[in-house]
Amino acid sequence: MSAGGQYRHLFTPLRLGPVTVRNRIVFSAHLTNYAAGGLPTEQHAAYYAARAAGGAGLIITEEHSTHVTDWPYEKLIHGFNPAVIPGYRRITEAVHAHDVPILAQINHNGGQASSMYSRLPVWAPSPVPDPLFREVPKAVELHEIRQIVAGYATVAEHCIAGGFDGIELQCSHSSIVRGFLSPATNHRTDRYGGTLGNRTRLLLEIVDAVREAIGPDHALGVRICGDELIEGGTGIEDAVAVAQMVDATGRVDYINTSIGVATATLYMIEASMQVPPGYAMFIPSAIRQAVGVPVVGVGRFKDPLQADRALDEGLCDLVGVVRGQIADADFAAKARSGHATDIRTCLSCNQECVGRMGLNRWLGCIENPRTGREATPVPAPRRRSTVVVVGGGPGGLQAAVTAAERGHRVVLFERHDRLGGQVQVAASVPSRAEFLDITRNLIVNARRSGVELRTGVEATPDLVVAEHPDAVVVATGARPSRPWWAADHPRVVDVRDVLEGRAFPQGAVVVVDELGFHQATSTAELLADRGCRVEIVTNGMVVGQDLGITLDMETWNVKAHAKGIVQSVDLVPMGASAVPDDEEPAGGVVLALQHHPTGTDQVRRCDWVVCSVHQQPEDGLWRALVEAGLTAHRVGDCLAPRRAQAAVVEGHRVAVAL
Ligand SMILES: Cc1cc2nc3c(=O)[nH]c(=O)nc-3n(C[C@H](O)[C@H](O)[C@H](O)COP(=O)(O)O)c2cc1C
Ligand code: SF4
To answer: What is the share, in percent, of the chain residues with pLDDT greater than 70?
Structure first.
């Protein structure tokens, strides 16, 4: 058995050419949007250093652009600009201080880009528009191909000058190299198109040029897409053949893997909790059997035992744990020291990592308020205080954990027998059980850090005062609200009435989606599973609009179709009345709707209406405490009902200020 106790392989070292990693846990490449003006920042250095300090075996940075024609999103690092080198040094020195190697991923996104930032035509093998960016690229000419290759070599030199231990070539889900490899996007008839050998030519030329640029003392890896999951694209057999060609050069030290195309099948690259863990392991396992160099497997590694098992089964030589280490910088160290249950397990919710990338904001994490804020120091606590927290949802638990970890005495009251607040409800619907981890993790940490957890106790001002608190944090959540159009019809209910067991809709059910997120879509699925005929109506242009940014839209649509859920858009509820006594469905609801683009009226007759609408703050206790003269801070929904991330961030912020 290796160091790391129960793990047979995870904490064994491995050579990647000239670089030795101390364990098999890779913090694989991912965008952060931490760059400013095309340059790396102090936040990059602090972010990667935190994962190095937390025990990662190898860090691979986000992509660095290799050419001025490649600027698909605002905060991309412009590796082609030599001004990046001082920032590179700050990153590599911060990571090397923890004795961890760090590689730079370099890339040209090709046709998977827009000209919005660069004001230059995007380059690609052929004029095939990308389905996301919807821009016809310029087919590169031979002299431009030479520029592309030279660009990779120049950027590799910048990286080595900046102290990186090597380079990873992104040839996988978003890259001009992938564009050349794929018959879906490469329609060329010259020596860079046609056969797989021809389509791989650019990749092999880049490998040669970059190896020449970095010399033998630095590692070189290639990231390959194992299955594009698009019509006419490459599949696993092509990926294995490309990997063999790469391996045969003798100039590459490892192969990293990926699945999908970033702009067409992104939902499989950063798969949400709808997709089972291990879903992409067929890729490294097939490649590993065909090449001599180590192979990295990536995709929903959530816990160290699962990672160790993949290594044990010979599926891969290293495991990429990306969101797992975004969520918990100490993933590896906690596993190695036998404290795996303390890991803040990633939920694969995609809300604050992938979701924020799509919105051009800096990378964060729904359950880790420090992610994205590593460069901002946390002030020391002023003195040991007694802190009373009311409410055991994510906001209250986070406030309690942070306060306790800062040395305060913390008492938490929760009126229900179980902790978790609305997370319990949110996780009770189909395919969303992993959401429960957000409070499971916090409960473990609350117990470990000595929070007194008083469940089944309704906090009153007298109970709170009896603790002689120096500070009170109120996290009492939100309650369902009755939309103006619902009148008092007993069969117009809230999603929480359904999920908390107060209402049992049957027959024909209309779910009204005014939130555009899982509340409506998940409840619709649950009701369809219970045999209801379900229609979702929304005032938006698409049902579950925000499922798009968390990459749940595709899986939702597949399931909705299979379950017969009807989706109707652009409809605003205008009123709900009772079905007349002598008409069908008996006891049902007449729901009046207006199609807002045309102003025309529609009507649905159904057995039940279930509302997914905005909630109201549950702030009665806070008001009573303030009236009693106490200083009380509200966090999360009782301040303003939003999503879980707001509660976690506010719980942390309030506790840090104590
Ligand atoms: C926010 C985000 C941005 C990403 N950007 C990149 C990237 O720039 N280059 C890359 O090769 N992979 C990128 N990826 C994909 C990851 O390397 C990895 O394949 C994916 O997250 C699945 O691993 P996980 O389940 O451990 O998170 C990104 C992933 C995330 C979550
Ligand atoms: S936001 Fe969700 S998916 Fe992203 S790292 Fe955090 S827990 Fe994981």
So the answer is: 99
